[in-house]
Amino acid sequence: MSTSLKEKALRIWRIVKRAFIFLLLFQFFYILLLKWVDPPFTLTQLGSLVSGNGLRRDYVDMKEISPYARLAFIAAEDQLFPDHNGFDWKSIQKAIAYNKKKPNRIKGASTISQQVAKNVFLWQGRSWFRKALEVYFTFMIELLWGKQRIMEMYLNVSEMGPGLFGIEIAARHYFNKPALKLTRREAAMIAACMPNPKKYTVKPLSKYVASRYPWVMKQMSHLQNDPDIQRLLQ
């Protein structure tokens, strides 16, 4: 290789190295910043806007969210949320075994923490590259944010209907009230739509939500006295 080619290769390497270091530092400080600041936008929100579903959101603090809403989403989506480190390994193993048997019917096993990592930092999809990034961001938010902030973020950025992001907008859209005033039944109905909030609607009430929300309410009753869950409801 000539001297000029070596110099060009060295310059390119330096640029790549500096860019990598910049991105590494930027993402770390962005994760840390979001411990206290709500994200200005997410890729999922932008995707909803571009696709024509619109974008309605209203971030609120945890104290402005009904404890019933927190309990309902834990009951519906991740009952081990207070106890795991971001990953429910038993559910993951079951999902892998299920997907091998029925490859045309994919079953997920994402925890609330994983859903937050995906919804805040990444895009929707099932590629191995995106999944690897999800693992990284899940680890980081568990390390830097803690369960209270993860739960608060989940309830603010999750899509709970076509173009409806967060529990505050969902409560006002479906029940004409703020998230703080949601009843046990109303919170369970919103949580019941989460596998696919575009398909399983709260208003009009879909058959899936109508059949699932009583189960969610039953699970809420089983979980509500657990000390670890009680700490998340305070």
**Assembly state of the chains shown:** single chain
Largest sheet: 2 strands, parallel
Under CATH, the homologous superfamily reads: Biosynthetic peptidoglycan transglycosylase-like
What is the CA–CA distance across the termini? 66 Å
Order of helices and strands: HHEHHHHHEHHHH
User: What is the molecular shape?
Assistant: elongated
Number of strands: 2
Q: What is the name of the CATH topology?
A: Penicillin binding protein transpeptidase fold
The helix content, as a percent range, equals 55-70%
Give the uncertain stretches in residue-range form.
102-107
User: Based on helices, strands and strand pairing, what is the structural class?
Assistant: mainly alpha
Mean pLDDT: 88
Brief descriptors of the model:
Penicillin binding protein transpeptidase fold; 62% helix; mainly alpha; elongated; 234 residues; two-stranded parallel sheet; 11 helices
Outline the structure in words.
- The protein has 234 residues and is an all-alpha fold.
- It has a single domain, classed as Biosynthetic peptidoglycan transglycosylase-like (Penicillin binding protein transpeptidase fold).
- It is built from 11 helices and 2 strands; from the N terminus they run H-H-E-H-H-H-H-H-E-H-H-H-H.
- It has a two-stranded parallel sheet with strand order 1-2.
- Helix 5 packs across helix 6.
- The N and C termini lie far apart (66 Å).
